[in-house]
Amino acid sequence: MSDLIGLLIAYVAIPMIIAGAQLLLSAHLVDATVARKLIHVGVSHWWLIAMRFHTSMGFALVGPVSFVLINTLVYRYHLLSAMEEPNHQKNLGTIYFPISLIVLVLMSFSGPMPKYVGGIGVLVMGYGDGLASIIGTQFGRRRVPLFGGSKSVVGTLTMGVVSTCVVAIWVALFHARGGDPGFVILSAVVTALIATVLELATPFGLDNLTVPIGTALFFLAVFA
Length: 224
Hints:
Layout: H1 2-26, H2 32-43, H3 46-53, H4 57-77, H5 93-109, H6 115-139, E1 143-146, E2 149-152, H7 153-174, H8 181-201, H9 207-222
Antiparallel strand pairs: 1-2
């Protein structure tokens, strides 16, 4: 029953997040980049649903697998402008993100990775990368060319700061040494640095794979 409740919540909440971003875009209250990243941040909360309600890997995989299929159709047929990257042909980030969820579910629900570690990767990707893109797009006038594109200095700083906060909160809540301030700060800063480097070094939306998976694997290997 718990698994079915989790699926129901996900299939209600995520379409509502997408619809809200689409309404904001249609009303010209946000641009396409901000709308897409608002969805990005919102969808990352799916991991909280999975941790709370899903008791088996099979049920936990249903959501990410279905959204790979749905996002592929949305991308292929341009069904939702709020989910589209301006450089449409070169960025499959909306498809890569649920694929990364699938990988982390496999590692967390049937492998050696604690579920909260998978959550670190997902929420760093959601909040860190999402807010970095929003703030970098709005305020990042100084940009650094990377891999045929560019990254804003403000956006990169945002990625680092937000990721540090996400990891620190998660470690304080779930890690056995969460009561040790020194460990919380060290693990948060170092993990956020790794996540930021991965985001900087990965072009074409592939950071939706490398950041959540790479960040979770790093934390698992070094701090878990």
